[in-house]
Amino acid sequence: MGSILFLGVLLGLMYAVMIRPQQKRMREHQSLIRSLEEGDLVVTASGVHGAVAEVEDTVIWLEVAPEVELKIDRTSIARRLEDDEEVVDDAELVEAEAEAEADADDA
């Protein structure tokens, strides 16, 4: 009788420690995917940063540089960026470098 009770407690503990948190993460990720809109700054599971340019049924178009878009699966979005200042600064830096190179080529 004691071993059955121990097994029940062990299974309950495993559920609380392993299964429940994973279900919560899955629900949060599904909510994120459903709430994606154009203009959201996101990071993919592979680490690519960009802005959502277009949302389709199962894919999104992610703008990673001016006039450069990637077609990716919606489920590959890992998180939404809240602090967009760092991303904007990086984009401005890339644009400034491109302008400097264009000026150097013209000279």
Q: What does it look like?
A:
It is a single chain. The protein has 107 residues and is of the alpha+beta class. It has one domain (2-81): Roll (SH3 type barrels), CATH 2.30.30. The chain has two helices and five strands, in the order αβββββα. The chain has a five-stranded antiparallel beta sheet with strand order 4-3-2-1-5. β1 (41-44) and β2 (49-55) form a beta hairpin. The radius of gyration is 22 Å and the shape is elongated. It starts with a helix and ends with a helix. The model has no long low-confidence stretch (mean pLDDT 86).
Mean pLDDT: 86
In the predicted model, the low-confidence regions spanning at least 5 consecutive residues are none
CATH architecture label: Roll
CATH topology: SH3 type barrels
The CATH class, by name, is: Mainly Beta
Query: Main sheet: which strands, in order across?
Result: 4-3-2-1-5
- Tally of separate domains: 1
Radius of gyration (Å): 22 Å
Query: Can you count the beta strands?
Result: 5
How far do the termini sit from each other?
88 Å
Beta-strand residue percentage: 25-35%
H and E order = HEEEEEH
* Secondary structure tally, helices: 2
Indicate the overall shape. elongated
List the topology elements.
Layout: H1 2-34, E1 41-44, E2 49-55, E3 59-65, E4 68-73, E5 77-80, H2 85-106
Antiparallel strand pairs: 1-2, 1-5, 2-3, 3-4
List keywords for this structure.
107 residues, alpha+beta, SH3 type barrels, 5-stranded antiparallel sheet, 5 strands
Quick recap:
The chain is α+β, with helices and mostly antiparallel strands. It has a single domain, classed as SH3 type barrels (Roll). Helices cover 51% and strands 26% of the residues.
